[in-house]
Design goal:
Layout: H1 2-17, E1 34-38, E2 46-48, E3 58-59, E4 62-66, E5 73-76, E6 85-93, E7 99-106, E8 109-115, E9 119-124, E10 129-134, E11 142-148, E12 152-156, E13 159-164, E14 180-185, E15 187-197
Antiparallel strand pairs: 1-15, 2-5, 3-4, 4-15, 5-14, 6-11, 6-15, 7-8, 7-14, 8-9, 9-10, 11-12, 12-13
Length: 198
Amino acid sequence: MIRKMLLSILLLVVTLSCAGSRKETTSILPAGEQLLLFDGSALDFWQPLSAEGALPALQNGVALLRADSPANGMVWFGPFPQTEYEVQVRVRFTEERTVFRLLFPIGEANAAAEFDGTEARIFNEAGALSAQGPCRIDAQAHLLELAVGKRLAIRLDGQLVCETAPTEFSPSEEFGTGLTLVASKGSAAVSSVQVIFL
């Protein structure tokens, strides 16, 4: 309870201090600081992927995202950095042929990282492939790390999978300004999400 209250206060302070342009949110906390967005116990500050959607049910400390249900994704609506950050997501695939996506900001632009159980890919807003590499995700819990800074890099369980230059991305108003997690095929169990400020 105290933890939720402290997170609420921190997010309110950060929101008030970052009100204005998106550029002001690039360093909402000092380098090295971590902000836990989801710990398996509550979905505070998350919203469904669409107006018709629903937040995933919490079962045994995980949010189960299912492509064939209204609870296919979740969007963080609290303050979020635009650059110089790392997102860490602990996830496992609960069905074969699952496709899991992270939509995330890069400065004034947005991009997507996609994982299909055998490969990771990074796409820009226009859907053009920017980087790819082998990335095996299965029923075991894996740590996905997405670093956004001078280079855009994906690591799986600490091993570099692929990287690209973020200069390949251009501004657009189509995507949201924060972090979005989606199961676009199959289902994925997410047990934690945190952001680290670089």
